[in-house]
Queue: 4 jobs
Job 1
Amino acid sequence: MGKSQRLVDAVSRSPILWGLAVSAGFYALIHAELLGKTFLQRYCAGHPVAYIETVMFFIGLASLILKGLDLAAQSATLERSPLGTLAKPTAAPDTARTLLERIDRLGAGRQRGYYVGRVREALEHVVARGSADSLDDELKYLADVVVGRVHASYSLFRVVLWAIPILGFLGTEIGITTALNGVDLQAPDQSMVHVLTGLGLKFDTTALALTLS
């Protein structure tokens, strides 16, 4: 796979890019009032904090959807072996080299899968050692490595899941500050408007954060 192809593949599988694209479309519909004057305008477009919360939500959602599609595609490929069959048995290193050549001929998407990746690393171990005697221990090690990779692949989603409630808390603080700064004993009526606006911001951003979380 060339550099340009890898770049296109990385961009097409980027949850940040897809999340931002969906967010742009969502807010375009809101500001064009194509969704009508609903509660979405109040809760999702009422304050910069609400914008950030919503964008983070779509990025996290895109991360899960892309992960689900990837796992579904990998599961579908498990129905057929990536190695094929051998005409006749040979020494383990020679067999491993033959099978590695077959894996190299697979499509880029299938080579990226967890199963094919583990098979490749196991075959490379056999070639490097010149024997399959320690293959059982290597397979256990590779299984642990894959578990770590899978856990790390959800890091962006975990950041989003952590950030949205924090943003809700930030909106709460901004709302309370706005309410307190709006207090003016010389003009109680106008002061009440500022206080209620600040409290409204506090509850709106908190409610949105809890809902999206």
Job 2
Amino acid sequence: MSVGSEDVGRAALIRKPDLVVLPYNLFVPSMLHRLSSEISSSGAGVVVRSPLAYGLLADGWSGARRFSDDDHRLYRWTPRDLNHRMKQRDTLRQALVLPPVGSLREASLRYVLANALVSVVTPGARTPDQATENARCVETEPMFPDAVLGIIGRILDTAGIER
């Protein structure tokens, strides 16, 4: 079952689906975290959609980015919201892109895969190079050292992201 809110997630998990599909990324960590006990109890696998926050965490565009009329991201964020997310993204990049992690894309995918509840991640790619980079980001383990995992909550707080 694909869910977009905690309430729908809880209702779906009562039915004990094989899989639950939900958004989970550095900007939207709370739904998976808040549903974790229900997910564990149900035995459902977790498929993560939008691990790169519709491209924002792929770190390929600036605040001057404009979306075409047929791009859902034009309607997803007001210019003010996008500017706010870009500032949060910069905070995340400064805190998480440290050797051996080479990019915010990599940090974002590693963050999602570091959660033991996650079974599958579906990062989008618009080019073959992006698909290759997505795959390369997670070739080594651990996804993050324990020291980094231990402070990610504080990093999210510093960036002003609800967790």
Job 3
Amino acid sequence: LKVEQLALNFVRYMSGIASNVAKFNLELANLDTELLYSGHAVPGLEDFAAMAFLHGGGILHEENKNYCVFTSNTIARFESIDDAIKAVKEIDKSIKPIVEVNDQAEFEEALFSNASVIRLNTSKEQVIKNCSIINNDKKILELQSEIELKRLRLTAKLGYKYIIIPSLSDAAKSLPVD
């Protein structure tokens, strides 16, 4: 009986992720925006959560598998974003940099760097809009934010290629192990 309950909880967890992703993915129909897996999941079940995310219609960023996310903490160790990118490229030229920013000032700095992808990590609607306007299709944009379903389509139309919603893969019914 305990094994059966464990199996049911596991199936509920996986189907919850796939169902949530599918529901959000429907809002993106006919747009050039994709839901990107965040990597947030129940510890130990990350691979299963990623598989469920895929089955719901999301993507795992496979075309950018060899990427490196540069956060403000990483960049602070160097003179500039370009210096941080250069240091990593000296180690491995195949690495594709993604610069993660948290506000408009950081976004503007990243816009004039050698990074081809900028990940905006904010829930502030005005910052999301402003950064899209400032970008004007210069860089590939990712948005990491807890966007509500009713705002997803409108946000995607601003020009974000990828949207990362961490709760899609970690807020499904979690697996109780007792």
Job 4
Amino acid sequence: VGATIIGVRTPQLRTYAKKLAEHPQLSAFLRYLPHQYFEENQLHAFIISLDKNFHHCIQAASLFLPYIDNWATCDQFSPSIFTSHRRELLSYIKKWLQSQHPYTVRFALGMLRQHFLDKDFQLEYPQLVTHIKSKEYYVKMMIAWYFATALAKQYPAILPFFTQPHLDTWTHNKALQKANESACISIAQKTYLRSLKIKAS
């Protein structure tokens, strides 16, 4: 893995992405996949994230997602234009959740966590997440992270997913662990959540 990492820090890559976003040959770089280096993937993610045209951005994201091969690029890939196009974004999230590529699924979960746990929350969204059956560590971790955040933001609606478990034991317990690490959940809630831990058989 070390041979694929040059060693450029993330803040420098973000600055460079802003410069490259106006480069006349940018489209050639975005089509040149897969990349060899970790930093190239990071630049690719940061450049797409700067795109102000939703339809262009979503096309570029859909092309890039199958080539993401690490959690860092996946989690730092967050197009700002998605915030003002949540309704259109949702159909893509649902499609990505069905992917066989773990980082595409992780990205979709991250977008669901980022954009649909506040005013746009609906109960169908965590239900969608419970339908994901994966043995991939980075998918299961993001499911746990999603539900921990959901408990912090939508506690009454999400609690039944734990009192009547919908997740596999490992993911259930990991979500509770992460919820107990949150500063947004009360001490009383944390005490109760700890009682919902499932003992491994």
